[in-house]
Design brief:
The chain has 123 residues and is of the alpha+beta class. The protein has helices spanning 6-18, 60-66, 74-90, 108-118, and strands at 29-34, 39-45, 50-56, 97-99. The protein has 4 helices and 4 strands; from the N terminus they run αβββααβα.
C-alpha cells in the first residue's frame, strides 16, 4: 500500500474532526486554513452553510495593518486573529467552535487560537 502524503494525512484528519465539529447559529464554527504563503480564517454557520465573518492575509485591512500583502509568520496569523475577532464582536459573535482544519495544533494555528481567546472569543 502506498504511503500517504502530508496533504492527504491532513485531509483525513480534517474529515475525522468535521464528524464532531459543527457550527450552529448560537456557536458558529471558526475554521482556519494555512497555505505556504497565506493564512485564512472564517466563522461559519453550518446549519445554513453561510460564512458570517472572514479574514485573511489577502485582506486589504491586513495590508493596512502590516504594510504588506500576504504573510506566513506567526505574527501575521495573530494580525489575522485581531481582524477576525474585531469583525466577529461587531456582529455579536462571542462563542465559537474551533476547527483547526486538520493542521497540528502548534505554531501559527496555536498562536492564532491564543490571540483570539485573548481578544475575547470563547472556544
Amino acid at each position: 500500500m502506498a504511503r500517504l502524503s502530508r496533504r492527504e494525512k491532513r485531509i483525513r484528519r480534517h474529515k475525522r474532526i468535521r464528524k464532531k465539529v459543527f457550527g450552529t447559529p448560537e456557536r458558529p464554527r471558526l475554521a482556519v486554513y494555512r497555505s505556504l504563503h497565506h493564512f485564512y480564517a472564517q466563522i461559519i454557520d453550518d446549519t445554513v452553510g453561510h460564512t458570517l465573518v472572514s479574514a485573511s492575509t489577502l485582506d486589504p485591512e491586513f495590508e493596512k495593518l502590516t504594510g504588506k500583502r500576504g504573510g506566513k509568520s506567526i505574527e501575521d496569523a495573530q494580525k489575522v486573529a485581531e481582524i477576525l475577532v474585531k469583525r466577529a464582536l461587531g456582529k455579536g459573535i462571542k462563542k465559537v467552535v474551533f476547527d483547526r482544519g486538520g493542521f497540528i495544533y502548534h505554531g501559527k494555528i496555536k498562536a492564532f487560537a491564543d490571540k483570539c481567546r485573548e481578544l475575547g472569543l470563547e472556544f
